Fold these 3 entries.
Entry 1:
Amino acid sequence: MSDRVAIYPGSFDPPTNGHLDIVERSSRLFDRVVVGVGRNLAKKTVFSAEERIQLMREACAKYKNVEVTSFDGLQVDFARASGATFIVRGIRALSDFEFEFEMANMIGASPRDRDGLPHDAPEYLFVSASRVKELAAFGAPIDSTCGERR
């Protein structure tokens, strides 16, 4: 039987506890999880790609079956290059599901490429990297949304 490999693509700008919750749960479901720090043309990032990769590597170091790398391009191509047959994406709300459903159909993912769409844990439903950046810009505390999980 072949390994069950999944990718978890995102911009992770910055990594949040919601992201890390998805990594932790994915690490229990799959033999190997490849976290892909990618470029999102629709987003202006605060952290450089190198910084985001380093932050994710530090946050994911305790998971022996999780690796962090960068990618540029379509997530379905990244999945194929990684040998993954699952794409993991966190779902906070119905709008996230609609977006991911449209993306999967638009890029023409084959039946071999399956999406894993775990819902976020309740405490992270309203946490997004965009909101964390906005809070940080105004000097608000972000300890409960970013960094290492408690």
Entry 2:
Amino acid sequence: MKVSGFTFCRNAVRYDYPVVESIRSILPIVDELIVNVGQCEDGTLELIQSIGDPKIRIVESVWEEALRKDGLIYAQQTNIALAQCTGDWAFYLQADEVIHEDDVPRIVEAMRTYHRRSEVKGLVFRYLHFVGDYWSVNPWFYHKAVRIIRNNGEVESCGDAVGFHLKATGRYLQSGPREWLALSGARVFHYGWVKDPKTLLAKVQEQAKVYHGDAPPPLIAKLYTMDTFEFGDYEILKDFRGSHPVVMRARVAAGKRHLPGRNRWLKPAFYQAVLKRGFRG
């Protein structure tokens, strides 16, 4: 059983992505790791090269700036990396996603278990979305996503690269027959919303162009009038009391709570959110 890893990144230094930690977190699992680095001038390519692991193979791409709708360019860039994978399984992580070392044995065991069961096209991971700091998670974001796919040419990234579909039919894996998917037993630690508020605002403004081009809807256009990112739901987020991946140790140690002393159980807004969205942890 051969396992490929794949990812893409651009402007990872400018927008403070934990891409090095992300890559290091799956290196023990994969036999090769394809990193698609988009053309940029912030030192991202040099940062990836500095990891210096022989498993890593870098491909360079130029982003198609005309493809500025619904985040489709993210799937395109993901598929550039996927096309270079030679393993039986292909393990996808985005540049702000990290795997916990405690979950590595579960992931390997899941791939071994389903390796010969061709009906299983993907393995599902549980998500922890950190927002504002390393001690706050948003329980209302999506809870599960496919991050390992069977690399037989049938499956590709779709939409804005959150999920995968069948090439032939466009059928989304997570809405397909139950036998298409199996649980990995592992978690993805998503750190995309843990940044300095000004850096996060700049990243979100850049992403808005990828989704909406030069004509964003009014709510999105508001981003361009702000001086810093506002974590609107921060006070009703769930406390995280577990451990972070070891590769994130330095970032977590240097981090600070966005607003110390938060207690969501004392906030009326929390109960309003539960009534509206349901209690999800």
Entry 3:
Amino acid sequence: MIALQHYLVVSAALFALGILGLLTRRNAVTVLMSIELLLNAANLNLVAFSRYAAGNLRGQVFAVFVIVVAASEVAVALAIVLTLYRLRRTPNLDDASILKG
């Protein structure tokens, strides 16, 4: 049987990869994928703790809420990235200062 610690180790690894990608990359699409890794690591923790708490579904409901918020975040962020690419012909985040209004 898979114990809670296994889920937590996988979640910590996903979170570490997300932080690494967030801090080291300058490509906007890669940064968005790193943010998604961070959110998925948090969701894995929520569902794992919900599974091991007897009769508690709050973690799973909150994980679904996080997925919905992440989907809307991706839609807005991709619109910003496409605007940046259209204006500068690069997805580099260092050139994102042109979007200041």
